[in-house]
Amino acid sequence: MANPNKQRGTAWESAVRDHLNRFLGLVDGSGAFLDPFHPGNVRRAAQEGAKDVGDVHAPPFILECKDVKSPAVPAWIRQAEIEAVHAGFPYGLAVRKVRGASVEMGRVHVSVRTWTRIRLALGMPTNEFAALYGWSVSLRGHDSGRWYMTTTVRELGHLIGDYRRNVTEPGVFRDLR
């Protein structure tokens, strides 16, 4: 792989995947899956071209991982949501590397609409959901399509675990626990 930008992106995707697998208890001390066939394992996806399916699959979330200097968060969120549809997952999130910080301090961005869908699936009031997972809001002008919510990769790990334990969509998430 000669392209250094591609190498950085791949390294960030792998770091996010490895962190979430460790956090969720899906791997042993060496990083090997406890059950390689478990549907809840967090995996890097193969590139699909025009029908890209996201960088990392952390059911029920598709993660579009970015390691760049200049953020374009609303565009990344739109990309993640499109890729979630392509992959057949309900939620798409953008995950941005923070320079000089650990993986768990990476930023996770989600549209207000998707944030609300996740919150409703968990059956949580707005203030409780925002406080529990450390969400902050970014309002960009009058166009609500550019508004988004942000938390950390560490809090995303908690959210994924809680979602898998508490949301019971028959045949989909019950098997991820």
Radius of gyration: 16 Å
Globular, elongated, flat, extended or rod-shaped: what is the shape? globular
Largest β-sheet summary: 7 strands, mixed
Oligomer: single chain
Summarize the structure.
It is built from 5 helices and 7 strands. The chain has 177 residues and is an alpha+beta fold.
Describe the protein in words.
With 177 residues, the chain is α+β, with helices and mostly antiparallel strands. 38% of the residues lie in helices and 17% in strands. It has 5 helices and 7 strands; from the N terminus they run H-E-E-E-H-E-E-H-H-E-E-H. A 7-stranded mixed beta sheet has the order 1-2-3-4-5-7-6. Helix 2 links the parallel strand 3 and strand 4. The longest helix is centred in the first third of the chain and has 20 residues. The protein is globular and about 45 Å long.
Keywords, please?
single chain; 5 helices; alpha+beta; globular; 7-stranded mixed sheet; 177 residues
How does the SSE layout of this entry go?
Layout: H1 4-23, E1 43-44, E2 56-58, E3 61-66, H2 73-87, E4 91-96, E5 107-111, H3 112-122, H4 126-132, E6 136-138, E7 148-152, H5 153-166
Parallel strand pairs: 3-4
Antiparallel strand pairs: 1-2, 2-3, 4-5, 5-7, 6-7
